[in-house]
């Protein structure tokens, strides 16, 4: 999975720049944008083809000041508003907020067919782990896109809390002619159930979920392309990490951990002004 994932990243990183250079001569550059919204679908080496979704909002740095306007000579009344005086350091620097929801899988997870139903079951898995990550960070434009073509490259760094939602991984099994559901047992997880039929419903498992606090970080490069000034399309690639206050028992084995890291690739689209 990881080798295939790395190949996909390298393919996009090499293909996008060459695609932009093959277009018509560049025109005068656009003005720097003030803010943008982007929605993304993520692949990552935690496992799974679609590993999560994200929403990102970025806003340019500004100094703020009060603007007083008279409402008429002799009225003695003024209207007070705020305005922009100047931009901090340089125009290509942005505050950003990211909200990501992703699934974290243990490296040793392997799905096998349950007998006799043939449903896929990860033997030895005790819990699913989902990370809700509201993160704050900064973005810097390295290479700016021209007006109607080219690739814009941004550096993104973010950090914030990671809310770990631990959902029990319940399997259905046959006991004395009745169907029951339970987690794998940590002491004897491979032979505990005589006849596994498949996994229980996600709704049943979600009702028994718990939460653990943690911290998250992300460092990445985004490659934006497209013809429109107001819409954006591109990819973001980099590393993500989550560290929790305690070990999360994803598997019934002894190698569970409280820190997980992965490479990721996000396909995003959105708008700006």
Search tags:
elongated, eight-stranded antiparallel barrel, single chain, Porin, 2 helices, 9% helix, mainly beta, transmembrane, 273 residues, three-stranded antiparallel beta sheet, transmembrane helix, signal, Outer membrane protein beta-barrel domain-containing protein
Question: Could you explain how this protein is built, in words?
Answer:
This protein has 273 residues and is mainly β. The chain has a single domain, classed as Beta Barrel (Porin). The protein has two helices and 15 strands. It has helices at 2-21, 202-206; strands at residues 35-44, 52-60, 64-70, 78-84, 93-104, 111-113, 120-122, 127-143, 152-168, 171-175, 178-182, 196-199, 210-225, 231-248, 257-272. It has an eight-stranded antiparallel barrel. The radius of gyration is 25 Å and the shape is elongated. Residues 13-30 have low confidence and may be disordered. This is Outer membrane protein beta-barrel domain-containing protein. Residues 1-22 form the signal peptide. The chain crosses the membrane at residues 38-55.
Mean pLDDT: 78
- The structural domain count equals 1
Largest sheet: 8 strands, antiparallel, barrel
Order of helices and strands: HEEEEEEEEEEEEHEEE
Q: What is the count of β-strands?
A: 15
What helical percentage do the residues reach? under 10%
Helical stretch tally: 2
Distance between the termini: 38 Å
């Amino acid at each position: 999975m990881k080798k295939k994932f790395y190949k996909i990243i390298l393919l996009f990183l090499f293909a996008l720049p060459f695609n932009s250079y093959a277009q018509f001569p560049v025109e005068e550059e656009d003005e720097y944008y003030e803010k943008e919204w982007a929605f993304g679908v993520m692949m990552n080496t935690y496992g799974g083809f679609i590993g999560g979704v994200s929403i990102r909002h970025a806003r340019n740095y500004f100094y703020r000041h009060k603007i007083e306007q008279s409402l008429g000579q002799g009225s003695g009344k003024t209207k007070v508003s705020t305005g922009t005086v100047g931009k901090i350091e340089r125009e290509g620097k942005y505050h950003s907020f990211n909200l990501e929801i992703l699934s974290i899988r243990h490296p040793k997870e392997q799905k096998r067919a349950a007998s006799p139903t043939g449903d896929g079951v990860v033997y030895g898995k005790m819990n699913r782990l989902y990370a809700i990550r509201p993160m704050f960070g900064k973005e810097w434009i390295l290479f700016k896109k021209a007006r109607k073509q080219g690739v814009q490259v941004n550096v993104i760094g973010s950090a914030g809390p990671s809310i770990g939602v631990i959902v029990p991984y319940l399997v259905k099994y046959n006991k004395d002619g009745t169907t029951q559901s339970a987690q794998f047992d940590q002491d004897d997880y491979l032979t505990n159930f005589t006849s596994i039929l498949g996994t229980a419903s996600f709704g049943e498992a979600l009702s028994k979920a718990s939460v653990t606090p943690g911290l998250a970080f992300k460092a990445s490069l985004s490659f934006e392309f497209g013809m429109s000034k107001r819409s954006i399309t591109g990819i973001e690639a980099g590393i993500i990490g989550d560290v929790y206050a305690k070990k999360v028992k994803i598997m019934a084995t002894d190698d569970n951990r409280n820190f997980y890291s992965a490479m990721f690739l996000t396909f995003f689209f959105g708008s700006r002004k």
